[in-house]
Design goal:
Elements (H helix, E strand, L loop, with lengths): L11 E4 L9 H13 L7 H6 L5 H12 L5 H15 L7 H10 L5 E4 L4 H10 L8 E3 L12 H10 L6 E5 L2 H9 L3 E4 L7
Parallel strand pairs: 1-2, 1-4, 2-3, 4-5
């Protein structure tokens, strides 16, 4: 399957990481399941995908509220990240997105714009041997408002010194597409793993 690009003379590409560059969502789901099970918490797979792009801390807070639990947010977040890091040897790239990264590298400025931590994004990109392909990484903690707010995409455009309307976003989640649209950027929808 080839990922078609919208028409336009784009001056920069902005890529989400999890589920877009890295076919990591199935591994993240395993990490969530294992970390949450230690606290008697469940996260249905359909809800996990619906919440794609949300910050980890927000997910834990909402699960606590929904299931009447008091999981310590930082402890669960660290545990989930540790499990994910151990699963990294199984990580693969999304082939169609990988082609666009290689095509743009050295020709256009490219950035990663992720709701994940810098530690997680860096580890994923290093595993895929892609870390050196990107000019800028914008990760959780670099901005105040998560997707669907456009702040992260606008920050990446500013750091790349490219007008927002000249950026093309690659995203796999509704929140990400909404954020790109709110930033005035064209977007390409990357099918989620179960749709590929």
């Amino acid at each position: 399957m080839t990922l078609p690009l919208p028409p336009g003379d784009f001056q920069a590409y902005l890529f989400d990481c999890d589920g877009t560059i890295a076919d990591s969502m199935p591994l993240h789901y395993v990490a969530w399941e294992r970390a949450l099970a230690e606290w008697g918490c469940t996260l249905p797979e359909d809800l996990f995908y619906a919440w794609g792009g949300r910050p980890v801390a927000d997910i834990i807070v909402d699960l606590n509220e929904q299931q009447g639990l008091a999981m310590p947010v930082e402890v669960v977040a660290r545990r989930r990240e540790g499990i994910y890091q151990r699963l990294l040897p199984q990580l693969t790239a999304v082939p169609d997105v990988l082609r666009h990264i290689h095509d743009a590298h050295g020709r256009l400025p490219i950035a990663v714009v992720s709701g994940s931590t810098r530690e997680s994004v860096t580890a994923s990109l290093r595993t895929l041997d892609l870390l050196d392909k990107f000019d800028v990484l914008v990760c959780a903690g670099d901005y105040a408002r998560a997707k669907p707010d456009p702040e992260a995409f606008l920050l990446a455009a500013k750091l790349l010194d490219v007008p927002p309307q000249s950026c093309l976003v690659f995203e796999d989640t509704d929140f990400g597409i909404q954020a790109a649209t709110a930033a005035g950027m064209a977007a390409v929808r990357v099918p989620q793993p179960r749709q590929r």
